[in-house]
Amino acid sequence: MKLLVVLAFCVCVFAAVQAFRYPAFLENASDNAKEAFMNIVTKDGLTPKQKEAKIAELVSQLSETIQKAYNNFKQQQLAIKDQFGTSVQNEIDLQVKQRK
Predict the structure, then answer these.
(1) Each residue of 58-73: pLDDT tens digit?
(2) Domain count of the chain?
(3) Any idea what DSSP says for residue 26?
(4) Are 66 and 25 in contact (CB under 8 A)?
(5) Burial 43-76 (b: 16+ CB within 10 A, else e)
(6) Cα–Cα distance measured from residue 10 to residue 22, given in angstroms and rounded to the nearest whole number
(7) How confident is the model at residue 13 (pLDDT cuts 50, 70, 90)?
(8) Which range marks the domain in which residue 9 is found?
(9) CA gap 59, 16 in Å, rounded
(10) What are phi and psi for residue 25, nearest 5 degrees?
(11) Is residue 34 exposed (0-12), middle (13-18) or buried (19+ Cβ within 10 Å)?
């Protein structure tokens, strides 16, 4: 029975570890860089803006390839935010107008 409990625990831990994926821009980064990234994103007490600034600082110390991948990642994030942020705001505005 104990063996089954230990085995189940190991399977759960393995699944949890495998479920996490680093952002694409860290694909070719060193293990140290990935660890530094994790330390930033999991640190309590930092606002999202502060975490973003620390990630940008970290990336600036990495290779040019990773910096380019990070810049592409940021551009994609902004495009998504612009596309969906605008459509959500338009929907909110439409709902407000319909209620008047």
Answers:
(1) 999 999 999 999 999 9
(2) 1
(3) G
(4) yes
(5) eeeeeeeeeeebbeebbeebeeebeebbeeeeee
(6) 22
(7) low
(8) 2-99
(9) 26
(10) -70, -15
(11) middle
